[in-house]
Specification:
The protein has 207 residues and is an alpha/beta fold. 44% of the residues lie in helices and 15% in strands.
Length: 207
Amino acid sequence: MQFATWEPIYQSILQDFGFSPGRDVEAAMLLKELLRSREPLLRAAETIVAGHRIVVCGNAPTLDKELVGLQERDTVFLAADGATSVLLRHGIVPEMVVTDLDGPFHAILKANQMGSIVVVHAHGDNLDALDRYVPQLERIIGTVQCRPMPGLYNFGGFTDGDRCVFLAKELGAASITLVGFDYEDESVTPRKKRKLEWAKRLIELAQ
């Protein structure tokens, strides 16, 4: 997605949640610096996704059951943050993990050590996590929600789950199947519920 297309959506998200665009830029600058000497991995990610059946895994409680029978040939799994733990428990190493580093880092690190590319997202609320966790990870692609700087990307999307979908579409997925998504989860906080509403809206836009 071109940033010109994403920017009006981004501005609406900033207004809805009261986020600071300046802090988003600060986080982007930090991530850029942390990744300064890293090998570019976008081409590798394109090879993984392009032309393949992609299963995007959210972290809803239904994920365990929905994974049954999905381990077919030519299926590529993308995990949204906390879904990584569930996938590893099922013996599935996701090809990519999309995260803003507020989920179970031990699982994300384990997946990374087993070969997963971690798509790390920088925003104004996770500077401390970026500084703490990014140096521990190896194969990383950096993303932002503001205008991307050189070496960083903005494929579109707001939450880990919908950013997975935008990423898969951008990289040329043949098809995208969603599992572990529950937009009506009543157990979440009001703030999280608003994020789920945005995720649903953005996934519908992406597809």
